[in-house]
Amino acid sequence: MKKIVKFSFTLLTALVLSACGDNPEAPPEAANNTPAPEVNTNDPAADEAKKAEEAKKAEEAKKAEEAKKAEEEKKAAEEKAKAEEEAKKKKEEEAKKAEEARKAEEARKAEEARKAEEAKKAEEAQKAKEDETITNTLEGQPNENNAGGLLTPHFPPNDGYSHDECWQEGVCGGEHDMYNYADKYVFKRLEAINTDENSTLVSLTLEGKNIVLSPENQNIHLTQHQLNTLRANRGDIVGYYGYAQLMDNTTAGSTARYIGLVAADPSAYTGRPDNNMQYSGKMYYAYNNRPRNALTGQVSAQYLSSNKQFTMSIAADKTDPYYANSIWELKPQHNQVHIDYEGTINGKLFIKDSIEGEFKGRLYGPDSEVLLGTSKSLEQSSEKSWKGVVGATGTAVQ
Q1: Which range of residues forms the domain containing residue 165?
Q2: Torsional sign, CA 66, 68, 72, 74
Q3: How much is the pLDDT for 192?
Q4: Where is this region: Disordered (predicted)?
Q5: Among residues 321, 230, 337, which one has the least CA distance to residue 281?
Q6: Phi/psi class of residue 248: alpha, beta or left (left: φ > 0; alpha: ψ in -120 to 50)?
């Protein structure tokens, strides 16, 4: 019996050692490598449980993703609705402001139109009043304010104030300030005679004590101009003279023009001077083919009461392309020009012994102290053709 047990133990030991690889050639560590228990992977219940778990997790993840997406869509929709509402409010506010601005602009324009209409009516009423006064004076009988139907600028209706009392600005004041009163009347008469072609290019206005030149419309651009207001010794406006260089854009393209300007109050004709007179002034002129070249000559003139003779010399502009350093002298066919009883002066302009132009003018003012007129070359079709205006003021001399 003992032999059987011993054999069985020996056999079991051999089998265990053999299974563990215990042999003389195996490394020592091999005896300690105990194999892991085998898992049965073919368990249907475990597989089902695993699949169910994975399906549950996938479903939860899907629902979470859908919930997140729904939340994002909700927020986007809310933000869009909010933006649309704000845009709508902004648009309504802008429309409201635009409507208010439109109404305000309409109200402003209506107010301006009302004021303009009132100003127009007031101006028309004032002009009608002035026209009535002028008409009454022109059509009246000769008296201290009316020289035989010709209105004199020196004695307009003045409610008892004489011109000598009110000859300076502010002496009488208000409606009795005859200095301003006379200016308005004189300028009105000057406007009435300003009907030549120049009136379509430039306009004149009375601003303060001066007559001012401006373009007639936006198509006229003044490049250079000069306008002198001439007054009698006691302050009345007698007339004006000057020139304007301009660019005329009223037609296709742009045209350079030069125009001379001169006018006198027809009521200021006074005839020949009673004394010897010395005059000085200017002649503004330009050559017809050089409208951009404005020239200025210096005028010197004398009147002798003893023989009623008038002499005048005009020194050409130093930049004159043809007559620089030359002098035009006013003559008939002899040395002096006779002035008629109305103060009219007509004569030829000589350079030495050659006739180079002509002058037509007149003396104005109560003391014949203002000279105004026009001048031009005899030939108006040549390269040397020119036109000018003359203005001068004089003083009595011994």
Answers
A1: 132-193
A2: positive
A3: 72
A4: 20-156
A5: 230
A6: beta
Residue 301: helix, strand or coil by DSSP? strand
181 in a domain, yes or no?
yes
Instruction: Give me the CATH number covering residue 213.
Output: 2.40.160.90
Residue found under tokens 């994002």? 72
Domain boundary among 161, 193, 225: 193
Q: If the chain, 398 residues long, is cut into consecutive pieces of 10 residues, what is the mean pLDDT of each piece?
A: 50 53 51 55 82 90 91 91 92 92 92 88 66 37 30 35 47 45 77 70 89 89 93 89 91 85 85 92 95 95 90 96 94 66 86 92 92 92 92 94
C-beta of residue 167 within 8 angstroms of C-beta of residue 178? yes
Q: What pLDDT is attached to residue 382?
A: 85
Give the pLDDT of residue 4.
Answer: 47
Tokens of 140: 């009246």
User: Can you give the pTM of this predicted structure?
Assistant: 0.56
Helix axes 44-139, 178-193, angle to 10 degrees: 100
Residues near 74 by Cβ (< 8 Å), separated by ≥ 6? none
Structure tokens at 209: 């004590």
Q: How many residues does the chain have?
A: 398
Structure tokens at 336: 């002096």
Tokens, residue 111: 């107010």
Cβ proximity of 167 and 235 under 8 Å: yes
From CA 180, how far away is CA 133, in angstroms rounded?
Answer: 16
Asked if residue 254 and residue 277 are part of one domain, the reply reads yes
Helix (H, G, I), strand (E, B) or coil at 359: strand
How many C-beta atoms lie closer than 10 Å to residue 100's C-beta?
10
Type of residue found at 2:
K
Pair (229, 342) in one structural domain: yes
- For residues 138 and 140, what is the distance between their CA atoms, to the nearest angstrom? 6
Cβ–Cβ under 8 Å, residues 153 and 236: yes
Per DSSP, 143 falls in state: B
Taking alpha carbons only, the member of 309, 329, 300 closest to residue 392 is: 300
3 state SS of 226: strand
What percent of the chain lies above the pLDDT cut of 70? 72
In the prediction, which pLDDT does 41 show?
57
The C-alpha atoms of residue 37 and residue 236 are separated, in whole angstroms, by 138
Say whether 221 sits in a helix, a strand or coil: strand
Q: Of the candidates 329, 243, 361, 250, which has an alpha carbon nearest to the alpha carbon of residue 292?
A: 243
Question: What amino acid is encoded at 253 in this protein?
Answer: G
Q: Alpha helices of 140-244 — where are they, by DSSP H?
A: 178-193
